[in-house]
Write a structure and sequence with these properties.
Elements lengths: L2 H12 L5 H8 L3 H13 L19 E9 L1 H10 L6 E6 L6 E7 L2 H11 L3 E8 L15
Antiparallel strand pairs: 1-3, 1-4, 2-3
């Protein structure tokens, strides 16, 4: 990866629908050279996919919360399968520390949050942090490796 690849990644993280010709003009390469670089970034699994961001408030999910949970080992696999039944679950990570998982949920209101917590409590001891605001969202990954 060189500086041009990083510039392509920077621009695509801002707008995944950035036209290839415009990318080329922005970084000083032909459209075909940019397309070739993007293809190599995809083949090397540096670019995994293209996605959109949804304004959760505008679709009726104004409340977000992080919920961490500690599970007994015997519940871990069944709990992971159970997560498929949570359409409000945005993200789940396995972590170190007292709790073994941390999850981000998008919810309608506090009653919806309470329902989720009650369901999670069947598997372990959930701990909840309601998100008041996101100060930094979807910050692009930039060239930090020296």
């Amino acid at each position: 990866m060189d500086k041009l690849d990083w510039k392509i990644l920077d621009l695509l993280q801002e707008n995944a629908r950035y036209p290839i010709a415009a990318l080329g003009r922005e970084i000083g390469l032909s459209a075909s050279a940019v397309a070739e670089r993007i293809q190599k970034l995809e083949e090397n699994e540096i670019i995994e996919n293209y996605t959109i961001r949804i304004n959760k408030k505008n679709i009726g999910l104004p409340l977000s919360a992080y919920i961490s949970i500690s599970l007994r080992n015997i519940y871990f696999k069944s709990f992971i399968k159970e997560l498929e039944n949570f359409p409000e679950l945005e993200h789940c990570s396995r972590v170190t520390g007292k709790d073994c998982l941390i999850m981000r949920f998008n919810l309608r209101d506090s009653e919806h949050l309470e329902d989720v917590i009650d369901h999670l409590a069947k598997f372990g001891d959930p701990s909840t942090l309601v998100i008041l605001s996101d100060l930094i969202k979807n910050k692009p990954i930039t060239h930090i490796i020296k």
